[in-house]
Amino acid sequence: MKSFKIALAQFSPYVGDIESNVQKMIEQANNAKKQNAEIVVFPELSIIGYPAEDLLLRPSLTKRTAKAFEQLATIKDIVLVFGFVHLTEDGQRHNAAAVMKDGQVLGIYNKQNLPNYSIFDEKRYFSEGHQHLVFEYLGHKFGVLICEDVWSLNTVQQLAQLNVETVLVLNSSPYEVGKPQHRVITLKELAKQLHINLVYVNQVGGQDDLIFDGTSFVINHNGDVALQAPSFKEELFFADYVIENKAYQVLEAAPVLDTMAEIYQGLVIATRDYVQRSGFPGVILGLSGGIDSALTLAIAVDAIGADKVQAVMMPYTYTSQISVEDATEQAKRMGVTFGIAEIHPIVNSFMQTLFPFFGNSPADATEENLQARARGTLLMGLSNKFGNLVLSTGNKSELAVGYCTLYGDMVGGFAVLKDVYKTIVFELAKYRNSISETPVIPERVITRPPSAELRPDQKDQDSLPPYDVLDAILYAYIEEDQSQDDIIAKGFNKEIVEKVIKLVDRNEYKRRQGCIGPRISSRAFSRERRYPIVNGWKAGV
What we know:
Helix content: 25-40%
Number of domains: 2
CATH superfamily of the largest domain: Carbon-nitrogen hydrolase
Structural class: alpha/beta
Distance between the termini: 62 Å
Number of helices: 16
CATH class of the largest domain: Alpha Beta
Largest sheet: 7 strands, mixed
């Protein structure tokens, strides 16, 4: 037995692009060798990326995987531990990990616990494994687990009973607020309880609506965190096992991000990867002078650079001069391409065309929606002409209650704030300003009352409860799945709760037609929250 060094490849795979993923893995393995690492560990399903969804059903996957193995076999003098899709001779498909050295596969582990809740749908694609994998190297006994396995106490106990010293855990664990800290706290206790070392390697980067934070770590058998990698950073990290101490050398941990920094960085990396990997040259958004579009613009610039961001102000009769000034000022501060497109003639033309149908009917939300749809049409026209992706700017609070216009402000290909409540939008704006020498978002945008500016002197609070009240009710109903009666019992006004829940339920059809956006909560408007659009469920208990 001797001391050794292990490399954690906090890796950002491009889902489906096996060739580029393998090339990156080869580069990282060679870099690990240069740092004298004896083992390099990659995340779950690192060859194809996670989640690959129905790409996993493609008949050619087996051939492509075999070719990937051939390429990885060229790496010598270091043990590779990586994730792949294992198709057995009897036709079963497994979420698996391979241990390879000098081109020889030393062992294969099939994931035993397949998550099938929230965003996970692994039982659609994979069969369960039933055997543990233990291998000895450098006089040290290693076990292998994959993501969900480490959260099954029974599975880890069985592995620990095989006298393993270090468990290598391959993960593609999506981000949500507070989850990086939860992983460390929980697995510290597990390491102490079972007296095992844990090497936890997590994927990083954005994939459709999911964010992977990385935040890989190594925990010694006494519960000490030996290595804590930073969040949202693709890089190799190293841990030294010291034989004299029978533990991994404790290094200074990367600073833990506060909540707003964590969310902001997650939204930036999600936006960057979605735009770049989708092949768009840049993005375009409507900059209204309000806080949602202001924050979206800041995230976009931080994600892909000011030179690839275009902002358009589209004023109408009810747009305040303050809004025009603030939008213009922010665009100037951030150095983006900016233009102003008046929508008076477009909206007036709509009204003239519709007058024979509308007659003298009193104005209502219809006229407001025409303004929003005129703006949406202009943005899509500019997108079509120049190829830039339209970023939708609505937040979770608005989407929840339908305070948005279908085919209007909801148009776009990526909704950056889709899973961000309005109260958090304000905090994120303050955070973004705090990390710049000069605030990028004008202070007035943050402090003045929010308004859609679709009618005279309009304020959001004319139609909605105060956002702190609204968001608290929404969180209880959406994230916590509490009933109407339960929420009222917490002390909220009965009429307000009934109104909010009615709006949430009634606007499911809108959300189904909206674009995707990055998930930061445990219950986003995505694959983990599925309600029938047409249903007869009565609110209450």
